[in-house]
Specification:
The chain is of the alpha/beta class. It has two domains: about 5-45 and about 285-399, Aspartate Aminotransferase, domain 1; about 45-285, Type I PLP-dependent aspartate aminotransferase-like (Major domain) (Aspartate Aminotransferase, domain 2, 3-Layer(aba) Sandwich). Helix content is about 40%, strand content about 15%. It is built from 13 helices and twelve strands. It has a seven-stranded mixed sheet with strand order 2-8-7-6-5-3-4, with helices on both faces. Strand 3, helix 6 (about 125-130) and strand 4 form a beta-alpha-beta unit. Helix 5 packs parallel to helix 6. The protein binds pyridoxal-5'-phosphate.
């Protein structure tokens, strides 16, 4: 059987490839602590489940292709509460931010087209772009500059006749970088001047520790034709299994094209949208602050614990719940296999995500890992302690 060259340009997720080794470690009786997956342990708000159990229609029908009416209204109101004015027609409900990305890429990319993406980046971007025949052109960043990317010098030399879009995660996964207002302005200016889509993946929008007011590229109304926001309830409400996201754009041409795909896949899950609408409608503003403060405690615990490991290099993350760390080892993938197969401390070991999959050139991530700090501060501290002991044992074994 023949498979498409497009699918062969896609890779399995680097976050999941250690799973069989993890299972083997668990079978040996080890407790495996996780710093590798962005699955928060914060409880999903009860209102999500309550709204679904109140649902009383006798037939679970298809929802309208653009989304359940209540969900669209609730999303619009949520944006309004942040000070961003969008109409219901500017929103298309999707199966998480993931489908939102796939839809947008399918609408804008042809074979050979390019998307500029600050590197390191969320690995699934490669899949969503490569499957269309397009490709990522990385915006190079430096660990020692905290992975900042928003300057003309870094971006403009990469723009050519194949460039269609800039795709960025703000707040950043895997870097924790949050753009300043000036940097956002610059990104919008570049997109406008070069007639590019500016796809702003804002699924971590509220998780910002800088004290700045919550931001969105939708603020830059003069770039309405360029800006496309990717949104999701997954991380905002710790509801990754709800599979509810959205494409948000004031570019009506784009939304009309995207509607073809939304109609083609008929709708996204009705009940999940009902639950998501309730979370937007019923949770008080304090919900977002409390969640942010909980992540801040986790971040602080992680930074304190990491600072105790000799030879690690990192910048304190400004947002989201990830960071890239440079480790004093030759190869972080080998380190991860070692941690699962040969290391333990008091019956425990730890998983991180080797960073090679976050770069177009895997070599650039060889001595780096991504850490996700999604569990309580005590667990984060112990997991980082295990990482430090693991590094020591790995380097001692290698001599
Ligand atoms: C940067 C980024 N974008 C999009 C997604 C997709 O999330 P979902 O499809 O659950 O909304 C994730 C998930 O981890 C992510 O980290």
């Amino acid at each position: 059987m023949k498979f498409s060259s497009k699918i062969q340009r896609c890779e399995l997720s680097p976050v999941r490839k250690f799973y069989p080794y993890e299972m083997a470690a668990v079978e040996k009786g080890l407790k495996v602590r996780h710093l590798n997956i962005g699955q928060p342990d914060i409880e999903t708000p009860r209102v999500f489940f309550e709204a679904i159990s109140r649902f009383s229609d006798s037939v679970l029908e298809y929802a309208p292709a653009p989304g359940v009416s209540d969900f669209l209204t609730a999303t619009q109101k949520y944006y309004e509460s942040l000070g961003f004015h969008i109409s219901r027609d500017d929103i298309l409900a999707t199966y998480g931010g993931s489908e939102a990305l796939q839809i947008v890429m399918s609408c804008i990319l042809d074979e050979g087209d390019e998307v500029l993406v600050p590197e390191p980046f969320y690995p699934n971007y490669t899949t969503f772009i490569n499957i269309t025949g397009g490709k990522i052109r990385p915006i190079q960043t430096k660990a020692e500059e905290g992975y900042r990317f928003a300057t003309r010098e870094q971006i403009e030399p990469l723009i050519n006749e194949h460039t269609r879009a800039i795709l960025m995660t703000n707040p950043g996964n895997p870097t924790g970088v949050v753009l300043t207002r000036e940097e956002m302005r610059l990104m919008a200016d570049i997109a406008k001047e070069h007639d590019l889509f500016l796809i702003s993946d804002e699924v971590y929008r509220e998780i910002v520790y800088t004290g700045e007011k919550v931001s969105s590229m939708l603020e830059l109304e003069d770039a309405a034709e360029n800006v496309v926001v990717i949104d999701s309830v997954s991380k905002r409400f710790s509801a990754t299994g709800a599979r509810v996201g959205a494409v948000i754009s004031r570019n009506h041409e784009l939304m009309n094209e995207a509607m073809k795909l939304c109609q083609g896949r008929l709708c996204t899950a009705t009940l999940d949208q009902v639950g998501a609408a309730a979370m937007y409608n019923e949770l008080p503003a304090s919900y977002y602050t409390e969640v942010r403060e909980e992540y801040r405690r986790r971040r602080d615990a992680m930074v304190t614990a990491l600072s105790k490991i000799p030879g690690v290099e990192f910048r304190c993350p400004e947002g989201a719940f990830y960071l890239m760390v440079t480790l004093p080892v030759d190869d972080t993938e080998k380190l991860q296999y070692f941690l699962l197969e040969e290391f333990q401390d008091n019956g425990e070991t730890v998983m991180v995500t080797p960073a090679d999959g976050f770069f177009t050139d895997p070599q650039l991530g060889r001595n780096k890992v991504r850490i996700a700090y999604v569990t309580n501060p005590e667990d984060v501290t112990r997991a980082i302690e295990l990482l430090g002991l693991g590094i020591q044992a790995y380097n001692a074994r290698k001599g």
